[in-house]
Amino acid sequence: MHMKDKEAYQIIRKAVLEAVEIEKGPFNIFGRGSEPRVTLDRRLAAVLRGLDIPRIYISGYGANYYYPTRVLETAQKLLEGKLERSRYTLIIGQQSAWLLDKVEYKELAERLSAMH
After folding, report:
1. pTM (two decimals)
2. Using alpha carbons only, what angle is made at residue 41 by residues 44 and 114, rounded to the nearest 5 degrees?
């Protein structure tokens, strides 16, 4: 039986808040020489909306909020094994983090591997 989306979102929110505590600041995510930072896809941004997470706002085209990569990477490790019954997976790239449907992710990975 699959986990309900709402339950998965709560688990993800808890893991991110725990990761913030583990990673403790200061977070250097502004300006030149900043630590690695990522933007969030719409789904992940919606799940994390309202949480007290270190972030900066940079005006311009596209996503405007940037989050410390190390916080999301730690959350990803904390989530290992906890979303197996969920339809979602947390993916972290060099510039963005996504909360993807596992089926969508598998199809995307297959398309990308076919291109190379």
Report:
1. 0.87
2. 115
